[in-house]
Amino acid sequence: MLLEAVYHRPKLNWCYAYDGRTIHLRIRTKRDDVTAVSAMTGDKYMWDQSLTYVPMYKLASDEMFDYWECEVVPPYRRLKYGFLLESGKEKYWMTEYDFMKQQPENPDRLFEYPFINPADVFETPAWVKDAVFYQIFPERFANGDPSIDPEGVLPWGGKPERDNFFGGDLQGVIDHIDHLTKLGVNAIYFTPIFAATTNHKYDTEDYMRVDPQFGDIETLKKLVKICHDRGIRVVLDAVFNHSGRTFAPFVDLQKNKEKSRYKDWFYIRKYPITVEDGIPSYDTFAFEPLMPKLNTANPEVKEYLLKAAAYWIQEADIDGWRLDVANEVDHEFWREFRRVVKGIKPDAYILGEIWHESSPWLMGDQFDAVMNYPFTNAVLDFFVDGVGDASHFANAIGKQFSRYPRQANEVTFNLLDSHDTARLLTRCDENKDKMKLAAQFQFTYTGTPCIYYGDEIGMTGSNDPDCRKCMEWDEDKQDQELFSFYQELIALRLKYSALRTGNLKFLSAEAGSNRLVYTREDEESKIIIFMNNDSKPRTLEVDVEESRWEDIRTGETVSAANGALNLKLPAYGCRMLKAK
């Protein structure tokens, strides 16, 4: 055994309370180096009487490592533990201090989970596990009230630019709510709706007011009520890293300079406030002069923003917040943010926009989840861009899954495109079959999937601003076949809990191959998914224990022959079979 590759530490994603009674343990070993791992567990105050070996299973793998996991329910909510590593006849016991060739005689130097304190348990909203999100960019979804159009509004459907307007508003969403109900989604994520000067509204002018171009608080309340009546949750976008340049405190600062009472609300490097060679004299989002960075450590700034976070939950009954540029805001602010939001609505969804590995924000004291861009990149690399083979893809997915506690994985936000990226169909060079295959992995993977508005009817668009086109409402110009595909995909995900929260295992993901076979399994069902990510028909074969299977789309019975399922799939084809 290569002991240098073995890794474990208490807490984080390696040892955590999944709920008030259950502890999950994980350990890392060199890939294909260890044949069996067991957790040696017991109570430190009655070790001899409670010592138990719990078999661990291989949770995931990547290019270099295997990740093992087991579940322990200690009778007294505390746990002493170590690990037994086996490779053939070779055995090592791992303690907190050392590797040993014999079982430790006492638990003094083992790892410890001291006690499952309820306040320390990372709880995520149960409803998100069953959610299918739909992202709406309000200015481009539908114009429901032309009387509040901004000056210079253009006819619906024109070419999107960074600075033009088409009059989309909240009433437009209300008018087309039947479209979302028919599609089957049960959650909406809105990009910012608060007063701002731009069409995207990420330059907030007033955090306590709906942008007049979109409506008012009464329109928002009406929209949320209609959504709730239809079983649809509503998540809004909070831009707390920076404000807009027309935000009243920044306006005062520009006017009064060093004498402004708001000078400590921002990070000013020098006066006067200017922009030289494209670099503002104050900290901003990127180098955007319209977006001065807020000092969230300032007590007044903190009070104002937390008041806004609470206000829209209390007044409009929204169901959560998506947090823009979340990794550039201090951790202590987000801890207070969580206390405020969960204190008002315990099952509110707190979703951070972070584009990379996000463990520091997913320890139960800040976010419930993050926008899962490592997942996005892995799916686009394999299914869309043809980067890497099936083995490379499975490794990328395994690595990402191993990074977070299970409760965070169950509610992570899995997207394939958004207002910040080119649209999925465009990324696929308008090959619908490739798009569908990517979406089928998205909808059969752990976490909550999100559809970017218009993807379901075949909208295209390259990078911003082209990805922010007006929604196409002419049914003759909508791809109804694609709409039916997404309808069916959503219905299947909502029907089978295994597709949402079941254990995932890759059965076939070979080097040099572009074919995948994996299972999603829980107590209710076992579903095996076959994917041919190739431009030509291919045959896929995998060994199975069950002899009879049912296609969950067609109802067709498929029988295994000699302990194996053998399926021929068309180019970019997919089949999902349930064990009978």
From TrEMBL:
GO biological process, one term: carbohydrate metabolic process
Keyword Acetylation tagged: no
InterPro entries: GH, GH13_cat_dom, Glyco_hydro_13_lg-like_dom, Glyco_hydro_b, Ig-like_fold, Malt_amylase-like_C, O16G_dom_2
Keywords (A to Z) from UniProt: Glycosidase, Hydrolase
Glycosyl hydrolase family 13 catalytic domain ranges (all copies): 135-493
Source taxon at top rank: Bacteria
CDD domains: AmyAc_CMD, E_set_CDase_PDE_N
Family of the protein in this entry: Belongs to the glycosyl hydrolase 13 family.
Name of the featured protein: Alpha-glycosidase
Organism: Paenibacillus azoreducens
Gene name as annotated: nplT
